[in-house]
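chain below, 284 aa
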Amino acid sequence: MVTTGATTGEPSGGTESTARVADVLLMFTEGPSALGVSRIARELGLSKAVVHRILQSLAGRELVVLDPATREYRLGPAAAALGARALRDSDLRSAALVLLRQLRDEFGETATLSTPVPHGRVYLDQVTGTHEITMSVELGRRFPLHAGSTGKCMLAFAEAAVIAGVLDAPLEKLTPATIVDPDVLAAELALVRERGFATSAGERQGDAASVAAPVFGLSDEVVGAISVCGPRYRMGEELVGLIAPRVVAVAEHISRRLGATPGAHMRSGTGTNATAAAVATGRT
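prediction:
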């Protein structure tokens, strides 16, 4: 039974109180690594008193720690332990890690693994490239689905409601190349479904390019994506054309390990039949 808080500004019940604690913790998954009470309260629409009490409780359990000099909080050792345990126990990560290394060894570029989260996606793992200058991604930080190959390939195969939610909302312009026109993005997603992979050149990070393919789970729902990424000056059309079918094939292999129907990635398109010509005619 949900009871009503007796004090103004207090959560109205256990469920709302738990949701507020979760919302505060999730604030640390994007943006700056350290946050103050005022910013959290402003962005979540809560009173400073409520936010302060939540942070005090989290700090008491080492989920966050306070920097006494700046009076800002950052994630603590207990949060790091939770994240490490989640990564260790992730079926998706276990199924993908060896294959990510194979992709890295084959092309010399960084191979990554991502999964969708509410209102975006996060990198779960990466195997960095072998070149002297190579790409590195930020694990655990939430990024939007409309920017970059990894987000687009997961969005393209997401449920219709998820796609509609992204297309109907303002699209943040992360770089000059980010797609912010919903009609252009819808056409891009259709192309991704047709060929089974997505490409990006500077859409999320200006100097980076990537190729990504979706990974499906037991119910043939999209549960993640793998990508190969590198500096734009190396990731030209020729290399992208070589990488694309391999990324699709590896994503299909991971999907089978997770119990997806063979060929799930081809249900709406040509999948591994996509050629370098398809890359050249799309957004690269």
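The chain has a mean pLDDT of 83. The chain is about 45% helix and 15% strand.
thats it, cya
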